[in-house]
Amino acid sequence: MITKSLLSKCLTIGLIVLSWNAKGQGDCKKSKITFEAIDAVGTTETGLVKLDFKGQPNDRFVLSLIGSKRYINHDFKELELERLSKGSYILIIGGRNETDNFCQEHFEFSIK
Predict the structure, then answer these.
(1) Tens digit of pLDDT at every position of the chain (112 positions)
(2) Alpha-carbon span 26 to 44, nearest angstrom
(3) pTM for this structure?
(4) Cα–Cα nearest to 41, from 71, 80, 86
(5) Which CATH architecture does the domain made up of 27-111 adopt?
(6) Short-list 103, 109, 112, CA closest to 26
(7) Domains of the chain: which residue ranges?
(8) CA distance 74 to 92
(9) What angle do CA 68, 72, 76 make, to 5 degrees?
């Protein structure tokens, strides 16, 4: 019984100490990145996504695209992703360095 109480108190103290150093996402900067998803056209069965970094260097971001049918493209640098199959996707944008203080953002879209 004493051990359980002691472990509970240690865990509580540990969580409080960690929360003091934890940086919330409320004080982060949003990226200016925009994207355009272009659906499959004509006889092609694939679409594409165009990214615009609005003058920000793309090496300051980690970009990941996760889609249906086990599609994963992590840490890509291209401004256009072509040959995307029809389906749902999630674009995840995060800062490469903690000192840049960019918020992690995600956007959902579909290629039809």
Answers:
(1) 556 555 555 555 554 544 444 455 568 888 999 999 999 877 778 899 999 999 988 889 999 999 988 888 998 888 999 989 999 999 999 999 888 889 999 999 999 8
(2) 42
(3) 0.71
(4) 86
(5) Sandwich (2.60)
(6) 103
(7) 27-111
(8) 9
(9) 135
